[in-house]
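Escalation from tier 1.

The customer reports that the assembly of three entities below gives different structure tokens on two consecutive runs. Tier 1 could not reproduce it. I'm attaching the input and our single run for tier 2 to review.
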Amino acid sequence: MGPTVTHTGPAHAPPPPTARAEPPPVRGHGAHRPAEGRRSGSRRENLAGYLFMSPWIAGFLLLTAGPMAASLYFAFTDYNLFDAPEWVGLKNFSDMFADPRWQKSVEVTLKYVVIGTPLKLAAALGVALLLAQSRRGQAFYRAAFYAPSLIGASVSIAVVWRAIFTDDAVVDRTQQLFGMNAGGWVGDPDMILYALVALTVWQFGAPMVIFLAGLKQVPRELYEAAEMDGAGPWRRFWNITLPMISPVLFFNVLLETIHSFQIFGSAYILGGQGNPCGPADATLVYTCYLYQQGFENSRMGFASAMAWMLLIAVGLVTAVLFWSQKRWVHYEENAR
Amino acid sequence: MRTSRHVERRTFLKAAGASLATVGLTAAGCGSGSGSNGGGPVTIRYAWWGADDRAKKINQTIALFEKKHPKIKVKTDFQPYVDFWKKFNTQAAGGNPPDVIQNAVTFLRKYEARNVLLDLNPQVQAGNLSTDNFRAGLEKFAEIDGNLLGLPVGSNSMGYIIDEKVYDKAGVTPQFGWTWDEWYAGLEKIKSKTGVPGDAGPHSIMYYYDLKLRQQGKAFFTENGLGFAESDLEAEWTEAMKRIRSGIYTDPKKAEQIKPKAATAGALSAGEFTWDNFTVRYAAEGKSSYGIAPIPTTDGKKTGQYLGSLMLSGTARTKHPKEVATFINFMVHDPEVGRIMGYDRGVLSTTGQFEAFEPTDKVSKQISAYETKIAETGVLEPITPHPAGADVIESAFLRLATEMSLSKASPGEAVDKFFTEAKTAFTANA
Amino acid sequence: MTLTLHTGPTPTSQSPRRRAGSLGWHLGALAVLAVVLYPVIWVLGGSFKPGNEIIGSLQLLPTDPIVANYTRLTEGIAGIPISTFFINSTVLAVGSVGGVLISCSLAAYAFSRIRFAGRNLLFALMIGTLLLPYHVLMIPQYVLFQKLELINTMVPLLLGKYLAVDAFFVFLMVQFMRNLPKELDEAARLDGCGHLRIYWSIVLPLCRPALITSAIFTFINAWNDFMGPLLYLNEPDNYTVSLGLKMFVDQDAVADYGGMIAMSLVALLPVLAFFLAFQRYLIDGMATSGLKG
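Tier 1 run:
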């Protein structure tokens, strides 16, 4: 691994003499965030910046930029992976908009994102708040709540999930207790998407851990001071916790949203044999359809067009979220 | 077209051979282009799909091969079926496929159309590979437009798996040559006497519909399209919906729920159409005892059956076609290999291997008896290799039939969608 | 300017009311946990059931527990001892963790604490890489690694980790680093420290929760990664656990769901151990305080 060694080098080496002799920083430059336009720094800052960025830049150029450019080109071609791509202009896009299965996949994905993401984040934050308290047996609780997320999207998960959402299994029984007679979810095209949502929510470990790490960074004095002022738990949560963890909350909202749009693994395994995207396309999430078109149907051009459509859509959502963070995300510089 | 490309590729290889070899391709002797090995051992890659059990058997056969051919080393790579094709497709698209693969008829034309598969005829002519001694004309199985694209390692046929206990209890006995009406009367009798739905619902199985069409002198696929009309399929699927509603076919929601277990193995139906070599799964997954019944007929005689098969194919980019041929030859003809593999990939395809293996377990005996019987009754027909895109169409058929049976589309809508998607698939693969 | 780090809980008085609250907390946590762990217990129970009773089983626990599914694992899969898969996965996972921690934190430091020309553009590009589904990059990447003759090695699986390709982690670390008090850098600079020293001695230690979080995720992702090993590893001896898990079930064969479930639980142990070992640092994670601006 040649490049690895060169890049890990500087991290361990003592700082080179030149790096020490830096001019004293300019005072009072306030917020300092990537999303904002800023005057560029000094030459030395530029050099340091690009040195620190060099592994990322190398990775971007080598592994990401090329393939992304290729996929952008394929989006305007008829490409079956074997013969040379043939330029077809916007045909893939017009085919896509006219395709009822594509429309179905958009509908399924939006439903999944809109229902699943808030539920998952709420579960993760709720449990993180519970676990952030110093209690006995924390290690056990954290590991136990994280356990579902360790398993990933394996076949075992598909087996257990299908089993507990089948007729007369635990979920159906619980529903019957409440007088609902819906039957099992996995064989029912109207319900299986909710089984998938439940699976996603169940694996809330990743955002939970990120919330926990964020909660750990909240200075305890703030709570103590608030308590002295007579603030109750709800107000402490609303006025201290939420603003203080807002960068982490922002991160989780953004990443979970992006991931939800791209959900593939758990949908693909849950559908069952012969119907990788669910019976009657009930869990035909966007990436599942993209995968089918690209790899099973050998329509790589169409799949690339789908991918770029997704990129544009999620890009817009991301941009809106970044724009909104000015209103509700508090970074250290702003907090004081 | 095909041959000229081959020539081009070979000349190119010769020209580029030296430089490529110096860049350091894996094994020694790689640069020699047309496969005459320059003394050192040659390594070929062999990929297949299967699980643990098959892996153990294949490892034994490879050890045997390497012992008899010390100058050829074989490296294996395997995954389950779906992952296997995912990986093979990526490798083939990247120009780096294994030298030998296990192959199936559904994928034959797809990869033939993209020049991925090796024509084995030159190797037959060179005496590296023998097409003699195959049972029931199986050596022609993978011949397309005069190119020999693979040789079968085992044969299988569609059969009708039944739950013997339920059939006994209902007093229904399947006979060779029974008609569809007799079959359906049997299902009704089973439902009324035992409460078990008679069949899991065959309407989503492409190969079942193919049999029905063949009995009427048609087929599911022609060389480049579908061999039936929208009205044919609409009639078939409309009837299926009636049977689902009457409870003669299994409730699709229930069948969907117990996947990947088969409905019959899960006691949700008394029988279903499937490949005869899948019988082994029913015995292991279910609690009853299972048998293979004959396929119902239209005219009391013709079943429309043919021998399908798994085969071994070489890939066109291999640098060692001679070694590939030697390997395939060994795997299809060597009696010891037959004894090791048994009916793992279907009933052994060459007479030498077929005679070398004596089935001892119940399931293998059943399968052997079944195939012997259908061969004797003379119902076997030749198969037409599926057109490119057949794999896509098979999954669309399954998906849309399921969509209909779950009441998410009317038979008419499902048929419309199927024909639209089939058209797209043929265009994409043209 | 002072910086106090405190670790661990502040001692609290054990009044009866607090104790009652503690009991309530535990009861509440256990109730939630019971729901969350039900499927895990189902899998655990399933691993002691005979293979043909697992699919669609309505029972949580086996009536007649058997250990055959576990003893079967000692035979290995396809003639390969199980330990081989575990060693390969460990190499991959540990290698990935090292790469991600170093390369992503370097990039995150630059994004959050160095003002260099083009930073906003690069940041937008990095976020952009999060948006494209992996599947369309798969084939071009495969062709690239094949041209570099790196197929059937771990390089394609590891290289990206050392080149900060996981934008997720860069972004995660950025979010944490941006929340560290700016005064820290300024004080350090006045003391004559360069960026490398600030990065290594000040920012990294303060970002430990983020680093540990990234390490845990990287380990788990690498351990569970299926697509990468599937495409790039060509010999069973090089297979990882995630590939090994798939060897129990194929459409042509009698599926060994018992073996698969048992193996999936055994495969869980290393990730669980990794999580337990490192989550301690999350608990002890430092809270910065005492810095009044």
